[in-house]
Design goal:
The complex is a heterodimer of chains A (about 500) and B (about 100). With about 500 residues, chain A is α/β, with parallel strands linked by helices. Chain A has a single domain, classed as Amidase signature (AS) domain (Amidase signature (AS) enzymes, Alpha-Beta Complex). Helices cover about 40% and strands about 15% of the residues of chain A. Chain A contains 16 helices and eleven strands. An eleven-stranded mixed beta sheet of chain A has the order 1-3-2-4-6-5-10-11-9-7-8, with helices on both faces. In chain A, α5 packs parallel to α6 and α9 packs across α12. The two termini of chain A are about 20 Å apart. The mean pLDDT of chain A is about 95. In chain B, about 15% of the residues are buried. In chain B, strands 1-2 form a two-stranded antiparallel sheet. Chain B is flat, with a radius of gyration of 22 Å. Chain B is mainly α and about 100 residues long. Chain B has a domain of about 35 residues: Histone, subunit A (Orthogonal Bundle), CATH 1.10.20. Chain B is about 35% helix and about 5% strand. Classes of the chains: A alpha/beta (about 500), B mainly alpha (about 100). At the A-B interface, α9, α10, α11, α12 and α14 of A face α1 and α2 of B.
């Protein structure tokens, strides 16, 4: 019998329609993979098996009648950042202990309306702050990939590390994720999966725990470019509950897949060639350029002089917004409360016990850069630099560039508890050097697996698109996927 | 610019996070590493540049000025660590 967990969403959609198997069978196959693997990989922080079976049975009834939505009966994992009614929603933080919302996020509502089945909630860096999924209150997520001949545990990237691991290890068909500085694309690159961060305003932020409101966007992680297009079509919507949701109809992204890229202009920005970048990343980039050239795209060199300032500007803007967003965790309305002699001490004790080290660090930086006398020197300056970063992209689009090709990350996945990265927070931040520019400019970006490094670990290429032009990213992404092939980790777990 | 341990303690108090002397000393080093990193921005000429306030050019949407929900006091206080009759309970604030 075929292993149902090896199917793509596109395959399963056909199989369910043809009644080759039921959604319940599909769901059970994933639940048993989760049960076998989760002790070792720690991708899920809550498994909603009963709810999954109920949803699958409901889907099967619809499918039996020839009805059903675009994702009818497809089992998905949901990042713990999305509010799911009556189900564990804690942003993987201690401070939200026991929080079960009385409402559902717009993105997950859209998925359930289209018939998807929820398997459970996925591990992540606390409040989405991290690049290795090591800041979660629920422990580290382990990458299903290992170096050839090694049994060292590697990180899956972050913050959507649980989402990436769950997809790569076949613990769900696809997953929701979020991206504030690279949190979809970097873990996708580290696990050989496809991840897209859409344009700011494409997916509603309503019911998504806020980190940095001007940068946060939801998006999917999946096995293929087509699967990520199917998921994004369902997740994206125009939502009156989010004032930054943009009034543009969601196109049929799948229609772009398979279209020729002949004549498309692909920009190669010189400034993404960083000092000390491993040779393998450079080679991968060149390979990507060749693939697109062979497919008929026109390759043009472009310059984006403010690239190197995106990360430092991000580390002012994101913590500033985070310090404001996280002010709501005060031990009064939800989650953890640690008593004190008076209300201020109660606040201070609660937040000291409830937030992890990385979250505290960013709240303090944010509080400092927004404090009296420093606002102009830090926050205002960073927002001005952000204008210049966006202008670099605007110029490329004005010059007729259709999409920009860059590496997704400066390295492959690294070891859990890496001494070097933990000794210096800035070193960990450098993981997002190629992805963060996209958030600063509000653009869409996709990471597509493009090859393996000398140790057998996956590497990704990133495509950056014009605002609301996700379709071109799927179109070009498919060419990379066709040329590079698919990458699956060798199973050592479960 | 860099911060000293007293500044870190003051900022932690502003952020309502209790820190021990030991925490404050360690955090001072970490925060200075980050502040050192962002100092690169001083190289950028920002004369006459407007700050970016929104990545998408769109007039802010406004909803109709009407009641969109209500009678949800139970839901609102559902997750509170301490509540009574749909009120949040906090330590005594006024002496």
């Amino acid at each position: 019998m075929t292993d149902l967990t090896k199917l793509t969403i596109a395959d399963a959609r056909e199989g369910l329609k043809n009644k080759d198997y039921t959604s319940l069978e599909l769901t059970e196959a994933f639940l048993s993979n989760i049960e076998a693997a989760n002790n070792q990989l720690n991708a899920y922080v809550a498994v909603t098996a009963d709810q999954a079976r109920t949803m699958a049975k409901a889907s099967d009834e619809k499918l039996a009648k020839g009805d059903g939505g675009a994702l009818e009966g497809i089992p998905l994992g949901i990042k713990d950042l999305f509010a799911t009614k009556g189900v564990h929603t804690q942003a993987c933080s201690h401070i939200l202990d026991g929080f079960k919302p009385a409402y559902e996020s717009t993105v997950t509502s859209n998925l359930w309306d289209d018939g998807a089945v929820m398997l459970g909630k996925l591990n992540m860096d606390e409040f989405a702050m991290g690049s290795s999924n090591e800041t979660s209150y629920y422990g580290d997520v382990i990458n299903p990939w290992r170096k050839n001949g090694s049994n060292q545990d590697l990180v899956p990237g972050g913050s959507s590390g649980g989402s990436a691991t769950a997809v790569a290890a076949r613990m769900c068909m696809g997953a929701t994720a979020t991206d504030t500085g690279g949190s979809i694309r970097q873990p996708a690159a580290f696990t050989g999966t496809v991840g897209i961060k859409p344009t700011y305003g494409r997916c509603s932020r309503w019911g998504v725990v806020a980190f940095a409101s001007s940068l946060d966007q939801a998006g999917p992680i999946a096995h293929t470019v087509r699967d990520s297009a199917i998921l994004l079509k369902s997740m994206a919507s125009v939502d009156p509950k989010d004032t930054t949701s943009v009034d543009i109809e969601v196109p049929d992204y799948e229609a772009a897949i398979g279209k020729s890229v002949k004549g498309l202009k692909i920009g190669i920005p010189a400034e993404y060639r960083m000092d000390g970048m491993p040779g393998e990343i450079e080679e991968l980039w060149q390979k990507g350029i060749e693939w697109l050239k062979d497919a008929g795209a026109e390759i043009v060199d472009i310059s984006m002089p403010h690239t190197k300032y995106a990360l430092p500007a991000y580390y002012i803007v994101a913590p500033a917004e985070a310090s404001s967003n996280l002010a709501r965790y005060d031990g009064v309305r939800y989650g953890l409360r640690v008593p004190g002699n008076d209300i201020v001490e109660m606040y201070e004790n609660t937040r000291a016990a409830g937030f992890g080290e990385e979250v505290k660090r960013r709240v303090l930086i944010g509080t400092y850069v927004l404090s009296a006398g420093y606002y102009d020197a830090y926050y205002l300056k960073a927002q001005k630099v952000r204008t210049l970063i966006k202008r670099d992209f605007d110029l490329a689009w004005q010059n007729g560039v259709d999409a920009i090709l860059t590496p997704a990350t400066p390295s492959a996945a690294f070891g859990v508890a890496d001494q070097d990265l933990h000794a210096d927070p800035v070193k960990m931040y450098l993981n997002d050097i190629f992805t963060v520019t996209v958030n600063m400019a509000g653009l869409p970006g996709i990471s597509v697996p493009a090859g393996l490094d000398k140790d057998g670990l996956p590497l990704g290429l990133q495509l950056i698109g014009k605002p609301f032009d996700e379709s071109t990213l799927f179109q070009v992404g498919q060419v990379i996927e066709d040329a590079a092939g698919h990458f699956d980790p060798e199973k050592w777990w479960g | 610019m860099s911060v000293d341990t007293d500044t870190v303690k003051r900022v932690a108090h502003l952020a309502r996070i209790k820190v021990s002397d030991e925490d404050a000393t360690r955090m001072t080093g970490e925060l200075n590493a980050i502040l050192g990193f962002v100092e690169q921005l001083d190289e950028v000429n920002i004369d006459g540049v407007e700050p970016l306030t929104s990545v998408v050019e769109q007039t802010m949407k406004k909803r109709a000025d009407g009641i969109t929900d209500g009678n949800k006091a139970n839901d609102v206080t559902l997750n509170a660590p301490a509540s009574e009759d749909n009120f949040f309970m906090v330590p005594k604030v006024v002496e």
